[in-house]
Structure formats: structure tokens, C-alpha cells
User: What shape does this take?
Amino acid sequence: MPSKTCALCHSARPILKRPKTGQQICKDCFFKVFETEVHNTITEANLFRTGDRVAIGASGGKDSTVLAYVMKTLNERYGYGLELFLLSIDEGITGYRDDSLETVKRNQEQYDMPLKILSYDELYGWTMDRIVSTIGRKNNCTFCGVFRRQALDRGASALNVDHIVTGHNADDIAETVLMNIMRGDIARLGRCTAICTQGEDTIRRSKPFKYAYEKEIVMYAYFKKLDYFSTECIYSPDAYRGHARAFLKDLEAARPSAIIDIIHSGEAFEVKQEVKATQKLQQTCKRCGYMSSNELCKACTLLEGLERGLSHAVITDRARQKLDAEEPPSQAMRTIPYFNLPRAPGVTS
Ligand code: SF4
Ligand SMILES: [Zn+2]
Ligand SMILES: [Zn+2]
Assistant: This one.
């Protein structure tokens, strides 16, 4: 039987069951607890300094839209002193990204943040549509992920920002932990749970939603009536990641703390010196000048393959798994069964 009052304020009527804890709480307490947890994640990890210029990687999807809204709210509430920007990448996917970018353009006005859009076409001379028509429906996300990573760095340097924040959430990170365990890639485990990463010469990247559950992000967007785009990318998601995701959802259904537990397990792995990834000397790509550990950066290696019609030879299974293990290809490819429901999940009445 649902309780009569909110488990947190003990006065208002509860209208939702919090996915992370199972508590029956009211809407205001949900907003407060969600925002406070993100604030605590940010302050405990010392993510920002006053005066930082921060770009929010914005796809128009639920994660990055909620991230932009919450970053704006917390920046004002707690006086972080950040200058916030929206940074979007146009992969060139007709019927998908062109529509989601319209959402980002509306967000720009709603949140009063400057927006920069960079396209694969202008950066690489290829759109994802053309890549898929050339290589077929295989490895699409591998190309897209490598290109996006570099595009975000380039966009950030054009905006002259110190920091990029992305909407990767706890589910994404737990999935990546599982994938690295399933592959025995222990060296990558520590890195994939890091809230903030920064290589030499690269811009700081962080994940303020590291401990935020996907279901709670969906609920937050729903109850705040945020304007976001919920259609999935038309290209094929990685099947292997799909298995990790399905497994994680099953675990979550049996015990909601499973997601955080898996992240904590990943964090707790002590990586012995001999299994740490070998650090290669940093140099610049001879083709585009981007920093790279080889003569050609990953994007240019893929581009040369595409141009020579050798894209399949460039991506071996092992290489693809390694590239994909960096982080989920995009929030866009998620299957969110509850998007089409009239009410958010866990809403009691
Ligand atoms: S699912 Fe994401 S990474 Fe894959 S092709 Fe689509 S936009 Fe790119
Ligand atoms: Zn309450
Ligand atoms: Zn290059």
C-alpha cells in the first residue's frame, strides 16, 4: 500500500516511487534530492573552479537536456560562477540529428546559453549517412564515437572552454564496467569509472551524472516538462553493449542498488602495474594535427580507410571493442521503453 505522506518531508502526498531507493516521495522532494545529489557529486569531486567556461555536450536527448537544466539551476543556486555553453555535434543523420538539433536550438533560448554546432561534414568531409552508405550497417557507432570525441574537443577549443561536461549517467558507466569485465580489460576499469578525465593537451571532460540513474533522469525530465527529443538513432547500436545493458536492467529490477554497486566495484579494482595500459608517447597527427599516440589519430586512420574503400580492414573486432569501450557511443541509441507511456515510471497516482 502506498504511504500517505512523502518519506522525506512527511507532509506532502507522495506521487512517485524513487527508482534509486524505492522511497515514496513528493515531486518537490524528488527535484530537491536529485539536484542535491548531483551538487554533492560535483563538489566532492571538485569538478569546477569559479570562472570556468564549461561546455555542455548537448544532443537534444533527455540526459543532456536534463544536464543543461540542472547545471544552470545549480550554477545559480550555489554560485559556482561558471560560464555555460551548449556544444552540439551534427553527425549528419537525416531524420534524426537534424530534428534533435532543433530541440537543442530551443534549449539555447529556454536556458539562455550560447550554442555552437559542429558537423562531421565540415570537420571530416563525411556525414554518417554517407559513411553508412559506404560501409553498410556495421561498426557505425565505432566511426561515430571516434569522430564525436574529436569533434567535441575541437568545438570546445573553438568556444575557448576549460571543460566539457557530458550526460553520461550511472547506467552508462555500470554498463561500461560490465563490458570491460566481460572482456577482461582490467586496465580500463579504473579509467571508465573516473568522473573526470584529462589527457595531455586535451580538455577536461566530466560526468556530473555519474551517480544519477537513467530512470530518475527520465522522471526528472518528465515532471519538469523539459523539452527534449526522444527518437532513437536510425543506425545500429552495438549488440555487445546491448547484452550488457539488458543484463544490467535485469539486475536493477532485482535490486536497484546494483547499478551503484557495480560502479563502486569498478572503482575499487586495484590495477596492478603490469596490467596498466602501456602509455605511448604523445605526438600530433601528421594529417590533421590533433594529438595522437600514433602517426595518425584515430579519426584520420578511419578516414583514410574510408577514402581508400578499406574501412573494413581498418576495424578489426578487437580494435572496435577497444574503441567502443571508451564510453557509450551516444545517449541517443538507448532504448527507453517508457518514453511512450503517458506517465513516467514509478508514478504511483
Ligand atoms: S547510435 Fe549514436 S554513435 Fe551510433 S551512429 Fe547513431 S548517433 Fe552515432
Ligand atoms: Zn516531500
Ligand atoms: Zn588526425
Summary: Strands lie at 16-17, 24-25, 53-57, 83-90, 115-119, 163-165, 196-197, 204-206, 283-284, 291-292. The first strand starts at residue 16 and ends at 17. The chain has 14 helices and ten strands. Residues 55 and 156 are 7 Å apart (CA to CA).
